[in-house]
Amino acid sequence: MERGIAAEVAAGVAFGYLLLLFGVAFWADRLAEQGRSVIGRAWVYTLSIGVYCTAWTFFGSVGVAAREGVWFLPIYLGPTAVMLAAPWVVVPFVRAAKAWRATSLADLLGARFGHHAGLARAVSLALMVAVIPYVALQIKAIALAFEVVSGGDGGEAARTFWLVVVLTVFAVLFGTRRLDVTEHHEGLVAAVALESAVKLVAFWILGGVVVWAVTEDEGWRAQVQEGFSRLPRVDEGERGYGDWLTMVVLSAAAFVVLPRQFQMMVIENVKTAHVYRAAWQFPLYLLGINAFVLPVAVAGGVVLGEEGSADTYVLALPLVLGAEWLALVAFVGGISAATSMVIVESVAVATMWSNEWLAPWWLRRGRPLAGRVVLWVRRGAIAGLLGLGYLFYQAVGASYALAAIGLVSFAGVAQLVPALVAAFAWPGASAIGVMAGLLAGLTVWGYTALVPLFIKGGWLPETWLTMGPAGIEALRPTALFGVEGMAPITGSVVWSWLANVGTLLVVSWFYPPDRATRRAAERFAALWRGEEESTLPAARGVGRPYGAALEAQLVATLGRFVETGRLQEAWREFRRQRGVGAHEVLPVDETTVAFAERLLAGAIGGVAARLVIEGALGERAPAWDSVMAVVEEARAVRLAHERLREVDRLKDEFVASVSHELRTPLTAIRTLAELLAADPDMERSDRLRFYETMVRESERLSRLINQVLDLAKLEAGGADWRHEAVDLRAVTREVIETVTPLAAQQGVVLTLAVPERPAVVWGDRDRLVQVLMNVVGNAVKFAPPSEGRVQVQVERVKEGWQVAVDDNGPGVPPEERERIFERFRQGQRRARGVGGTGLGLAIARRIVELLGGMIRVEDSPLGGARFIVVFPEKQREVVGGGAFHGQTSGGSG
Amino acid sequence: MGKRVVVVDDEEAIALALEYLLRKAGYEVAVAGDGESALHVIEEFQPDLVLLDVMLPGRDGYEVCQTIRSSGSFPQPKVVMLTAKGREAERAKGLAVGADAYVVKPFASADLLAKVEMLLTRNS
Questions:
Q1: Exposed site from A430, A458, A708, B103, fewest CB < 10 Å?
Q2: Is the pLDDT of residue A619 over 70?
């Protein structure tokens, strides 16, 4: 009798189910945007860890149980042990990942071993290779499910292919909607949590119905009871307690290291409190999903006999019982288990792949890295992983049971365990050592675990297993060095770990860790001990200026990758932590750069983040190592060096600014001249306008050159100045007379108030005129045309005589009041298109300082700015020093 | 014919010259004098290309360029950064925020026109 459900129905149900998941993900993302996070609940976290239970669990466990009894259990005992010990095992990872804003295990290990890009890459490569069989397993399970529910209508091959395509599309939709992966994929987590619930409920319904059906039937009941008693024990058959223990350890390792587990358990974790809850909840989940495994396995054996693979009892049983709806339930449960694994695994691997390999490569080739590019790279990587999984399935899938393929993956990812243990427990491990160990372990794993798969698949000669390649018995993949008696997977684990750990120890001995690695080791050890640490990285040196890098520049760079709102918030918080007020300049020193880098690492991974930041700073950042060495060992030298660098930097900046100010009028003149030359028939009005502009720009150019020369002369400290008694009343009158025509032309009323008695100060008369001309001229320029008022007042103050110049212009906001006296800092005032060289006030201040006086700006009772210049009454000793003395700005934007 | 260009420069003299130059070459031109208004003009005018000065009051050229690039509006204009600072770091930064080309002032108007023309014909 032909049993089954039409393939179209099964495919339709599967597709509908995927759509439902996507809807849930979409809904969760929307809620998150409204601030009502779904993943803020502990039970959602617990369920999301359920991504551990894949099609292997759903179909494979029953298969294993039917063939080997309780041997389906050890791969759940490992995770159970890990979760029961979660406060000591999982929490340190969560803390470390948050402290470094790691996007993956590769990122975290790279950071732990001194930001080693090569290591991060090796880890991501290892994980990717190791999970390929696992992805193939899911594809095989789905293909098998289709075959069984549809009764084998021959269309499986094509359907499997298209299913992989659909899965790829969904994985892309789920995983690459946003860039910042430390930002949590709320939708993805919600969907995975739902899938975990679905597969649990599906298994219960199935188990309940099967148990009920079997106990109803007299004949079956007796057979089932007998079946139970016939189940093999742990130490029966070829395997023993050693193998059992190996599998427990292996699954414990895989539970932490597998990319999808790390993603769900560590990266997507919002609160460490959730881990504590999951510590007891998750073992219960595992217990629940395994509750019906043995009954279903035994019932399957009884009802179906030798018919069909034990891996498909879950689907075949309902069909035999005539309950097609139940088959569909089981089918959805299985699809659920497989899809959640495939989607999360591929998203996690793709993130790693793009962050550690492709983004850095792209940047090294000098290509600008836009967020868009990163997303496409990630999408490509998802498709790549699923494609490789599909090929693997095609190559060897048919010849192996589900569980056997899964264990191969477990053994592969387990190669990271020595690195992880070393990360927390052995400060002597170096990046090179870890890489070498990983390579050695993976090689042995490939030979002892992958090669047999390919032999069984018919791609390599069978004789390798029995006689060894080229007849060398010591090299038989499943009995390396002639050691027999271990289950193949146990042998693989033992040998690969031996190779891995041995190489790690030896190579680390010869290439010890560098300073950065040792420091990171200390921080990891502290995390392990549970000592809370600030989320800020340890300050690397104090306030060392970082070239010409500006805060704004840094923020702008970050803005390309980090969402604006989040960036602004993080940045404000960072400024607050460092005690920098809203209007103050944040020193762009190493602490700031490190913070920026960490923020960026959350979006594009550590390696790429470093490259981007280096690019933004316009220099290669010195290795932290050397910086630390200087800090620790040569503090005094460093300080002296720093001062020199600071002076140097200010000079550089000055030269750059001058060249900028010279080039600007020059550009206008040149372009206009070229236009005039190219177009002899130009309209007269245009021509006149161009000539006028050229003259004006030329004047500006000469003015600028004069002022730069002036400033240069001021470096000499006014050595050639006259020292004479000057009456400020006369000086101000002269200035007012000079400026009045200009003021009248602009409709600005200019008034002067002077005292009765002489206001005598010491100084160079011409210089005093220069200063006051500048200040009064500015006031006139900024007063509103036609209703402007400027008042100049000479008054006695305790330091000497002061000239106050008030206007009713726009004023100078408090945060600008210091900066407008710096060279080429015209602030917002320039927005009004008031021409100026940006040197006038700097020169004025320099002169006044040399005269022993001071100049400042405050609010005017007229509503605009009040410039106050104070000249000392008596002659003061003229202050010397270079023009760069007194610059206080730390390089602001 | 009739490609649209926005000139963003706070230096009136330069804006004037560039506007005339581009008009003569057959482009439709709009001018903005600071970053904020540049974004408005670009949104209104939907140009094919933006000549963008770096040193602008308020939001500087890098910020403007970045805002354009992250706005997601389509089609995206080409962006040519103009700057009187010719240091390599700034050039790299200009390209990093998504500019298509980077021209140092002062420039030969013929070169600038050629560059504009090339960018406008390249991908269309």
A1: A458
A2: no
